Amino acid sequence: MLRLQPTSSLNTEHKGTLQRVRLFQHETFTSIFGPNFATMATRVIIMLAVAGTLVIIAAGLLRPNAPQSTSIQARSSSIQIGAVAPAFTLTTPAGKRISLSDFRGKPVMLNFWYAACPGCLAETPGMQKFYTSRHAGGKDFVILGVNVVDNAQVATQFMQQRGLTYPVVLDQNQHVMAMYNINVTPTSYFIDRHGLIRVIAYGPVDDATLQQDAAQISS
Known about the structure:
Layout: E1 14-15, E2 18-19, H1 27-33, H2 37-62, E3 89-91, E4 97-99, E5 108-113, H3 118-136, E6 142-147, H4 152-162, E7 168-170, H5 175-179, E8 187-191, E9 197-202, H6 207-218
Parallel strand pairs: 5-6, 6-7
Antiparallel strand pairs: 1-2, 3-4, 5-8, 8-9
């Protein structure tokens, strides 16, 4: 606790007409904040600036895990609604190579996720249910999951526990994540039969939104 001395008890030394006043009794406080008000003010400002910078950095690191609302326009200047979805090739946890171009001519939900993401956990059951129902009805709707964090073992365990039957690939160097400008997880790109992006959904997709967005790319 910082404590200023009363005027009557200030430690002073008289040398001619000069007088030196100590702000703090304890030498530790003096070394931290300085011997006078001007130095103390400067150091306090610097401390506050550093603290503010750390808060901003922490907020940026936490942002990918924060659930966001769904189905809004693209935020990236390079990835826009109506643009051609960037091509890529990745491998499944079992080592099979899959390319986005493998699904040309089919409607694709490209879903970026990872196992510990709260929003991903929330949307996965509905996605699997929708995928199963579409294929049972003879539809060619594709869900391609792109795991942006986990290794093959973690991804496989998650898929088995959740009963996922749609294909999942691993973006372990996060190259595709950067290509699609992913800064929120989950994020889903709905790509039509011509390879054009029609909807970008940020955050977990609920059942009603999934049906609506899938309809836009299935015609």
